[in-house]
User: What shape does this take?
Amino acid sequence: MTQLTQAEVEALARAAHAGQTDKAGRPYAEHLAAVAEGVRARGGDPDQVAAAWLHDSVEDDALSEEWLAHAPLSPRTKLIVRALTRRPGEPPEAYARRVLATPGARLVKEADLAHNADPRRLAALDGPTRARLTAKYARMRALLGTDTGPDAGAGTEPERGTEPEAER
Assistant: This one.
């Protein structure tokens, strides 16, 4: 089976999330593009870039786990996507352990957190939501060992895929 090209993965992710928006009302594909670019900028490889485009696809039901199992992607890309897919009711500590235990996943999550915590993205939110998300992202960075100080979150948009439906 021939693997999808980077352009095909990007097109697939954009189509899967078409019509979805983040908390600030921006097209969700902008977040995916920023995470993919963040992975590239951090020296990520093609498997990690592909996983960045798809990191929220199963969690958000944009693509199914069954699709992922049979998708023409590398086994490593699939492992990273699965590692980054939060499970209902999963404690942050368990999620962080899985990310850390999966080679390549931490870098993708680091890029995701950086974009989610970008002050320009957070500025578009109301105060209580901004405070809640800022604390949430700082906690996850600490659990992953990526908290490098006050600029650790510098990266452009409100995250959508990791809260319960009621918080989206």
In short: The CA atoms of residues 13 and 53 lie 6 Å apart. The two ends are 37 Å apart (CA to CA).
